[in-house]
Amino acid sequence: MLAKTISKIFFLGMLASSALLSSCKEEKIGEVEDIPGLGGDTWVPGPVDKWILDSMTTPYNISAKYKWDQFEFGNITKTLVPPDEAQVIPLLRTITKAWTIPYVQEAGKVFYNKFSPKFFILSGSNEYNAEGSVTLGTAEGGRKVVLFGVNLFKIKGMQGYNAAEDSSFVKDWFLHTIHHEFGHILHQTVLYPVEYKNITKSLYQGGNWINWSNEDARRDGFVTAYSSLNFDEDFVEMIAMMLTEGKAGFDKIVNSIPEGTSPRGVTKAQAQASLRQKEAIVVAYYKNTWNIDFYSLQKRVRGSMNQLF
Amino acid sequence: MKKLFLCLLFVAPALFSCENSDDTLFEESADTRLNAALASYEKLLVDAPYGWNAIIYPKGGGTYGFHFKFNDQNRVVMYSDFSAETAAKPKESSYRLKAMQTPSLIFDTYSYLHILSDPNPDVNGGGVGEGLQSDFEFSIFPDSLKEETVTFVGRKNQSRLVLTKATQAQATAYANGDLAKAVLFNNISKYQTYFKRITVGNITYEITPNQQTRTIKLTWLEGNVPKNFTTGYYFAGASLIFLKPLVNGSQTINGFTNFTWNANPTQLRFSAGGANTVVQEAIKPLSVDIAAVRRWWQEPVESGGDWRTEFGFHVNGVDDAFGVKDLEYEDKQYAYYSYVPGGDTRYEVFSPIFFTADALFQEYGHLGEPPTFTADGRIILTARGTFGAVPTSGPAINSVNLLYEKSGYYLIQTSETTYDMVSAKDAKAWISWE
């Protein structure tokens, strides 16, 4: 025991002396403050940079990268192009109006700044996948959200805006994506009640969701085809659809389920009941976990969207 | 024993680390030199008082002309010969120099240069998800820099970008919309005839431009012998520039300039080799490849294949003039139109092919007699009968009626495996077979 203690002290002594000895001839490490690329890329800031700083970074601690950096994108073999500068502010302003402000008003800045993703990465074009689909957006670890197709984005007042096409495009594309990803952050922080998983437990499709249309999926009690991938996607798709469609829109989806029994044996009444149960759990989850009145949040999101389109 | 080793382990660094002067080959650190290099490259780009004339050679083919003006605020203003709009209206975007595996020049927000790279085929007519395989991030190599000319290599597709210092007159020309005048040349596609000719000096050339691949083919006769010349091209200032000049006897053509365009009547004028010329319609080739019709007809007979076209007839300037792409048969979708020569004994078959998820179907079609080959190089097709439930009107009937046009067709071989079948009546209708 004693021997052990001695040897410990001895080692510590050696450790200290080796540090002392080796530091006897310390060299300067050079101009560390001037290593290229350290601390990120630099350029002369312009109006877009100022807008991002004033409207996102200062109030919400969120950065948005719109200048090209291939390595921000998950798959660097894909051909992408950077956003057109003229598109950046309209897109980010839309996201702020239809996502940031409703949450801040409903749940407070502390909540929002704590949980919102901090890095937005923008790509001008879509990401094309081998099987013919395109990727709309991706999220990594609740910190970073990548939005594709920024150059295709159009809202009221922009040149070439076509209400019929563009409103649903922006809704289903950018706003759906951001509400979807934020939903993931929330349930990854505090999981939703397990009863949610029992509602349509036997009907999840896994990777086969891609072969289903939204209409098919709704007959089984899923709000979108993608919902049927797994429990978590189902939960956040419910959040995204309920917020971007609004209460009336969601009711319309539930009521539009046709008569009869789905190929997988679900009746109209069962499918509608499943969607209503899921809705109730989402609402209760927001109230009990985050103290957010979901229906009030829904009204704010939908209200801001009505101004944009 | 073990402890002894451990002790040595600790002592060792103490002994070695006192002697650690790291003499370097260079006087300054790598980072300092890299920063200096980046700054000098930027200075070179910015210091050109009238900007740079640029040519890019995308991996996907073609050649495109640009004019860039860089400033020291990471901004660049450019013109591009991609379209009438990009040639007329300058666009400002951003750029930066960055130390990557090599020092790199990045055009980092969307500009005319990115149009070529855009993976959306609606933007540039390129492949889905890859565009024209061009670049907007470029490596800078030490030997790429010369005082008047700079050559960069694309990081993704290895496209070459060559910058040449512009003169004051050239910069003024871009600002005055000269490039927009040059791209008036693109209106040549508005001539309705397949064949077009220009006369330069006393030589008549057949001119065959391909605007997607950016090539021009010129054909002329020496006595009765046809000669061909093919070159890539791009636009700079008010001119179309050949990548290589045509030297034909005493005549040298480097490109075309002084364009004027009149829509009605269709008339494109320009000067070539110092002489003025006007593009004229022609209803037959300058030199008919008389053997082409038999080659075309014989090929599937021997290989057992067929000729296919997705769009059917182009007529009077309209692609898929009869709308064959909208054909349907019950629940089956249109795939392509097929022509199967029958050989010397059997019927010729002209029919649409339909598809479902897992199979192709030939539901109906038109049968033709063995064709007539004329001495002047035409093929004449005539009706024999039909099979299946042939519709009584619509795209299929319009197509077959034109196919049996009694003047017949010339066959123009456009590549080893493709032919254009051009109406001998007026050269305003054709099918591209592949």
From TrEMBL, chain A:
Keywords associated with the record: Signal
Signal peptide (UniProt feature, chain positions): 1-22
Sorted alphabetically, which Pfam families does this protein's record hold?
Answer: Peptidase_Mx1
Q: Which domain of life is it from?
A: Bacteria
Protein name (Swiss-Prot/TrEMBL):
Substrate import-associated zinc metallohydrolase lipoprotein
From TrEMBL, chain B:
Keyword field: Signal
Q: What InterPro entries does its record include?
A: DUF4302
Does the UniProt entry include the keyword Signal?
yes
Q: Where is the signal peptide?
A: 1-17
Question: Which named protein is this?
Answer: DUF4302 domain-containing protein
Which organism was this protein described from? Dyadobacter linearis
